[in-house]
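TICKET: design request
STATUS: open
ATTACHED STRUCTURE:
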């Protein structure tokens, strides 16, 4: 077991206990089995990117906040359970994508277009560019 796994394991256990959750409850909410989640908390297994993202979303944190392992929880503070969200992983990823400083000058529609464009392969990107050129020329004529 490496030190990072142990730190992540300790943070996950600390968060779970501070909120009064069971391993089964968290596992069900992040779409893993209880034995898999138990391995996360024991440090035998490190959560993958998707699981880390779901854990952060579950606790109402960013992944950066979740992985700031040096910030201990205060035992004297009452922690309210995070509100269950119906937001999909794609919606959460999109909202995070749109919060970048470099995108401040873009409209919401332009940000959505960039988000989905970034997920396409090269051929699909070229097809979309050609379609955008066609639509732009059509709009000019109207």
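STATUS: resolved
RESOLUTION: sequence designed for all positions
ATTACHED SEQUENCE:
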């Amino acid at each position: 077991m490496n030190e990072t796994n142990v730190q992540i394991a300790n943070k996950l256990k600390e968060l779970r206990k501070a909120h009064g959750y069971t391993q089964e409850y968290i596992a069900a909410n992040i779409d893993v089995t209880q034995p898999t989640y138990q391995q996360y908390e024991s440090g035998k297994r490190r959560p993958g990117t998707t699981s880390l993202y779901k854990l952060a979303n579950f606790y109402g944190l960013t992944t950066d906040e979740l992985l700031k392992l040096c910030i201990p929880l205060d035992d004297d503070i009452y922690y309210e359970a995070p509100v269950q969200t119906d937001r999909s992983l794609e919606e959460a990823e999109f909202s995070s994508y749109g919060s970048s400083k470099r995108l401040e000058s873009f409209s919401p529609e332009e940000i959505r277009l960039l988000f989905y464009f970034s997920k396409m392969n090269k051929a699909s990107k070229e097809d979309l560019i050609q379609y955008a050129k066609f639509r732009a020329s059509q709009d000019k004529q109207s």
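CLOSING REMARK: The longest helix spans residues 122-141. Helices lie at 3-19, 23-29, 34-42, 49-58, 63-67, 89-97, 108-117, 122-141.
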